[in-house]
Amino acid sequence: MSDLRRPGDRIVCFGDIANDVVVDPRSPIRPDTDTPSHIRHTGGGSAANTAAWLGFLGAPVDLVACVGILDAAEHADRLRGHGVVPHLHEATGLETSTIVIVVEGEQRTMLTDRGANRALSDEHLTDALLDAAGYLHLTGYNLLDGPRAPGVGRVIARAHERGIVVSMNPGSAGYLADYGVDAFVAATEDVDLLVANAEEAALLSGLDDSAEALLALAERHGIAVVTQGPRSVLVAERGSAPHEVQVPAARLLDPTGAGDAMAAGFLNSWRVDRDVVRAAEAGILVAAQAIQIYGGRPPF
Asked: 263-292 burial, b if ≥16 CB within 10 A, otherwise e?
């Protein structure tokens, strides 16, 4: 684990970016015919969403990601509009990842084409960016394509050589299970701060009880956060008692990106005063904003 000694420096988000198509059906989906729907095209991708929320909150943040040639400029402009410094690499022969998200109340179904994310390499994360950073945020998608486990391992090692805190959002219980829990744990055990939902935490710890899973993950990583939907957020540090922070009621429009927003709010607060309870409260407030808009990014 990093020595956590560099508060206040830049945050680098390294990972996935996407074009999201958010579909909110206005009635039960009818096969083989039309279903009236509310449809929005937004920027997406877990790492890019987290970067956008960090920029929205005023944090100094960079995003390293891969996009297709045709919409590279558009993505860069969107990110700058959120206060993010983009470092986007254009992938030859690949289009930017596209995700169709079907929203159904508190649940959403994602149909994913990973696209240019497959071209991301750990070499895209330069020494100059790391030298200016105090924090590096990864997502579980880094293990699925692009850097994969060897690249992720190299990135974490390079970060820790500089005393950089490494945080991670596992990203998707479905992909995590497909990848293999044991392999995922082996590739990410050196992460310092893990933000997961209850399903992801259960898979990664092998424990169904969220409080027990939290403590196991905190012991492994140093700091763990487990979100429990609209109920509460659990947070713990290694060797300390767990805390439960209640989630206030908020109007739900679209849950897409709530975990990314939570991670951004937590990291932005925690880097200032190292108080995990206040950081959880801050993350909850940002996630509450995220679920009241379509897509995973903040408003401009």
From this structure: bbbbbbbbbeeeebeebbbbbbbbbbbbbe
Written as six digits, the tokens of 35 are 């279903």
Is the distance from CB of 48 to CB of 18 less than 8 angstroms? yes
CB 150 within 8 A of CB 184: no
Domain range spanning residue 267? 10-17+44-96+115-290
Across 97-242, the runs of DSSP E, i.e. the strands, are 98-104, 107-113, 133-139, 165-169, 193-197, 223-227, 232-237
How far, CA to CA in Å, does 224 sit from each of 129, 190, 277?
Answer: 26, 13, 12
Are β-strands 98-104 and 107-113 bridged in parallel, bridged antiparallel, or unpaired?
Answer: antiparallel
> To the nearest 10°, the Cα dihedral for 32, 35, 40, 45?
-50
| Domain membership flag for residue 192 | yes
Q: Kindly report, residue by residue over 180-229, the tens digit of the pLDDT.
A: 999 999 999 999 999 999 999 999 999 999 999 999 999 999 999 999 99
d(CA 298, CA 78): 11
